Amino acid sequence: MVVAICAVLGLAVGSFLNVVIHRVPRRESVVRPRSRCPGCETEIASRDNIPVLSWLVLRGRCRSCGMPISARYPAVELACAALFAAMALRFPAEWALPAFLVLAAACLAGSVIDIEHLLLPDRLVFPALALAVPLLAAAAAIDGDWDRFVRALLGAVLASGALLLLALVKAGAMGGGDVKLALLLGLCLGWLGLGHVGLGLFLGFLLGSVVGIALLVTKARALKDHFAFGPFLAAGTLLAVWWGVPILDWYTGG
């Protein structure tokens, strides 16, 4: 039941994330005005704003002018539903689940924005952080386990500090958005354990290195080209959330 509810919630949140992905990089409000067709400026009716279903019914086109609607919209909604369901499977009966849903939504939206604009906006990262901190504090209060919350805060400092140090040592090695995003990633990973913080960063750098080398070998990118690293940090974090325990047990021989 929890998984099903989170999956449906993910579809709705995914629809909102599409607004965030489109408007935040343009410094537009995510509240007003209501969503409109970029072609004919017609306000999108509620019946045409149902996640995934409306896009399928309209065959990916605006009802008014027939302008194509990117498949990215239903893809983001489905991805958010899948991420929320996966988080519910990982934390089916834990009060920390809402904070990890925030993490999943921020990772998804941030990754798409970073890929499209090479940008991780403060207007995405800081609101997510402002939600995750009190949610984890509430979980710690309910469970009576403040050690985990302190560890989460320490994880945020360690993850962001590590990327900041790298950025200072080598100019251009790490963007400011990555350093700020690491606060959120380290916070949630620290809740699980400081080993998860190191694992999440390691997996992020590993994935980024593999893909980066592949792009260089295939000449899809040049060495001097900018590279969206946020999606790899996000992917490494999510992998550490879901499979960190068995990986760390295997590594330590536990």
List the helices and strands and how they pair.
Layout: H1 2-23, H2 53-57, H3 72-90, H4 97-117, H5 122-143, H6 146-169, H7 176-192, H8 194-217, H9 230-252
Helix pairs in contact: 1-3, 1-4, 3-4, 4-5, 4-9, 5-6, 5-7, 6-7, 6-8, 7-8, 7-9, 8-9
Features:
single chain, 254 residues, mainly alpha
What does this structure look like?
The chain is mainly alpha-helical and 254 residues long. The chain has 2 domains: 1-92, no CATH class; 94-254, no CATH class. It is 70% helix and 0% strand. It has helices at residues 2-23, 53-57, 72-90, 97-117, 122-143, 146-169, 176-192, 194-217, 230-252. The longest helix has 24 residues, at 146-169. The model has no long low-confidence stretch (mean pLDDT 91).
**Could you state the oligomeric state of the chains shown?**
single chain
Radius of gyration: 19 Å
Structurally, the number of domains stands at 2
Given as residue ranges, the uncertain stretches (5+ residues, pLDDT < 50) are none
| Number of discrete helical segments | 9
Query: What is the H-and-E element order?
Result: HHHHHHHHH
Total number of beta strands? 0
Strand content: under 5%
Major sheet size, sense and barrel closure: none
State the helical fraction. Answer: 55-70%
Shape: globular
Distance between the termini: 33 Å
Mean pLDDT: 91
Structural class: mainly alpha
Summarize the structure.
By secondary structure, the protein is an all-alpha fold.
